[in-house]
Specification:
Blueprint lengths: L7 H18 L1 H15 L6 H14 L3 H13 L4 H38 L1
């Protein structure tokens, strides 16, 4: 199914079922992951909505549909507006492209170094 036609609320419910199965098979790992999530999402200098928007941007930048589903839902539950979501997505687009340019320069530098070794 194309992501543009996905039923995100239904898909999130299906993902939750799969995560329950995983919790049954790896309970200690999933308990630790849940604790990490709860600690990271605890409001402090940043409120819960802002933290969910950050998680959404990271989910988009790393191309994680499952992350997108859960963090959009959580952002909406915390009162995020369409404008806040679209501004967050703008940052995700920027950070998806910017780091690629930076890593491309690393790859070119590596090529230069390996090529120099081969011709030496």
């Amino acid at each position: 199914m194309n992501a543009g036609t996905r039923d995100w609320p239904e898909w999130t419910k299906d993902l939750s079922k799969g995560l329950r199965d995983l919790r049954g098979g790896a309970p200690e790992v999933m308990k630790a992951f849940s604790g990490l999530a709860q600690a990271a999402l605890q409001p402090s200098a940043l409120d819960a909505k802002t933290k969910e928007l950050i998680a959404l941007a990271i989910g988009v930048a790393v191309r994680c549909d499952d992350c997108i589903a859960f963090h959009v839902k959580a952002a909406v539950d915390h009162g995020a507006t369409r404008e806040e979501i679209t501004e967050t997505l703008g940052m995700a687009i920027y950070m998806g492209a910017g780091p690629s340019a930076m890593y491309a320069s690393h790859a070119l530098d590596a090529y230069t170094q390996f090529s120099a070794l081969k011709t030496a």
